[in-house]
Every structure is written in structure tokens, then in C-alpha cells.
Write a structure and sequence with these properties.
By secondary structure, this protein is an all-alpha fold. The protein contains 5 helices and no strands.
Length: 114
């Protein structure tokens, strides 16, 4: 029964993110830099440019060198669904919850659970 509540909580948490997939970060998120407004675009810009037909240039920025797995994961989704911001955010959201769900399912099998 506890396991069902954990899954319900995960589904609720996932659903609560959906209305904000198109939203910009709050202006108070990072008042000293522009990180909240630029990092998201930078980490996907090279792959988005590639998918949109503008080529692939490692000298454009260093994010592909620092995070190639993230870009490779995004590539098929951008090809299929387009290079919109909401697609990139959904990729991250779904991968996050796919990572959390095995932890929840194994929680009931833990020897420390009573």
C-alpha cells in the first residue's frame, strides 16, 4: 500500500511540472548572473543547430564537449518532435522520473523497511 502512495506521489509531482514547461525562470532565481536564462539553451544549442540544418561546430561553445551524453540523448527526440524548448524540458523531466521510479520500486524490497 505504501508503494502505491509513492507512485501516486511521483505521478502527482510529474503532473505538477507540466503546466510550467513553457515558463521562463523567475527573475529571482539567479540575480547575479544570467545562468537560469542561458544554460538551458546553451546545453542544447549545438544539437538543435545540427537538427535544424545549420551544421555542427565544436567551436561554437564547449557544452557538447562537457556533456556529450545529454546531447546524444536529445538528438532522436529533436529529430522526431522538433527543436522546441518544451521538447528539451520534457526529455529532462521524463528521464528524471525514470531515474527515480526504480528507487521507489526497490524501496519496498529493502531489508531495512518494516
Amino acid at each position: 500500500m505504501k508503494k502505491m502512495y509513492l507512485y501516486l506521489l511521483l505521478i502527482l509531482l510529474f503532473a505538477m511540472h507540466l503546466p510550467f514547461l513553457d515558463a521562463d525562470p523567475d527573475s529571482l532565481v539567479d540575480i547575479n548572473t544570467r545562468g537560469a536564462w542561458t544554460d538551458e539553451g546553451l546545453y542544447s544549442s549545438q544539437i538543435r543547430n545540427f537538427v535544424n540544418g545549420y551544421g555542427f561546430d565544436l567551436e561554437e561553445n564547449s557544452t557538447f564537449v562537457r556533456g556529450p551524453v545529454f546531447n546524444i540523448i536529445q538528438l532522436p527526440f529533436f529529430y522526431i518532435f522538433g527543436t522546441k524548448l518544451i521538447v528539451g524540458r520534457l526529455i529532462v523531466l521524463v528521464l528524471t522520473f525514470l531515474t527515480i521510479s526504480p528507487v521507489v520500486s526497490n524501496r519496498s524490497k529493502s531489508p531495512h523497511t518494516h
